[in-house]
Specification:
By secondary structure, the protein is an alpha/beta fold. It folds into two domains: about 120 residues, Dna Topoisomerase Vi A Subunit, Chain: A, domain 2 (3-Layer(aba) Sandwich); about 100 residues, DNA Primase, Chain A, CATH 3.90.580.10. Helices cover about 40% and strands about 15% of the residues. The strands form two sheets. The protein has a five-stranded mixed sheet with strand order 2-1-3-4-5, sandwiched between helices. Strands 6-7-8-9-10 form a five-stranded antiparallel sheet. α3 links the parallel β3 and β4. α1 packs across α4 and α8 crosses α9. The longest helix has 22 residues.
Length: about 230
């Protein structure tokens, strides 16, 4: 059985998938567009730490990404640039515009998080689907407010102060020179030697190979242990 990638792009068409994989980027598609995405597929994707939805640059693609995002709560939605044109897709980005893998990484870095509460979506949820958006969103916000990314990363990697950030050896590749940067102001990390980047949840999912909700559980235990240690010290 092939190991699942740490990062995966869910795209809208087969040509898009082939173009992404030709550029060394793992991708999957339903071959039938966003509307044909099935619930059972989401179960196979929840263990992918870095998951992105990259659909066509039009209203249908945007709505499709929001619908799929209801089942993939930790996914991020990628916005293709206006240069791809109305209805443009990943194939246009790489083939017609001649963009590179580094260019694509930049739009991944700018991807926005899902979920959001259904009441704020410009489209109704898929029939028969439900999701505790408000509860999950509050849980994520509470964890990120209580658990600092520096405390979590330093459990796995010795960190040294570097200006407003912290630097250490990346645990995701053979890092001879410290290339992992941790930014407490934004609660994010970025490795300049490999593609790994994200928030405290993404880091824990990658380093422990955890699915999204188990990573949340572990971060809550970390928060509780930290709170108990602080109380005892006081």
């Amino acid at each position: 059985m092939l190991a699942k990638p740490c990062r995966l792009i869910v795209c809208e068409g087969e040509f898009d998938r082939l173009v992404l994989e030709a550029h060394g980027i793992a991708a999957v598609t339903s071959t039938g567009g966003a509307a044909s995405f099935r619930r059972e597929w989401a179960d196979e994707l929840t263990t992918i730490p870095e998951l992105y939805l990259c659909f066509d640059h039009d209203v249908a693609g945007h709505r499709g990404a929001l619908r799929v995002g209801q089942l993939l709560s930790h996914a991020k939605m990628v916005e293709l640039p206006d240069e791809v044109g109305p209805g443009g897709d990943v194939t246009d980005f790489f083939v017609r515009l001649g963009r590179t893998q580094d260019d694509f990484q930049q739009i991944l870095d700018a991807a926005v998080s899902i979920p959001v509460p259904p009441a704020t979506l410009p489209v109704a949820p898929l029939e028969g689907w439900s999701w505790p958006f408000n509860e999950l969103s509050h849980r994520i916000a509470d964890i990120k407010a209580a658990v600092t990314i520096v405390d979590v990363v330093s459990h796995y990697v010795p960190l040294k102060s570097s200006g407003d950030a912290w630097r250490g050896h990346c645990p995701f590749h053979d890092d001879h020179h410290p290339s992992l940067m941790v930014y407490p102001a934004t609660g994010t990390f970025h490795c300049f030697g490999c593609p790994r980047h994200g928030d405290v949840i993404t880091f824990l999912m990658c380093v422990e190979r955890l699915p999204f909700r188990r990573a949340l559980d572990q971060l809550e235990r970390f928060r509780n242990d930290h709170d108990q240690g602080t109380s005892q010290a006081a």
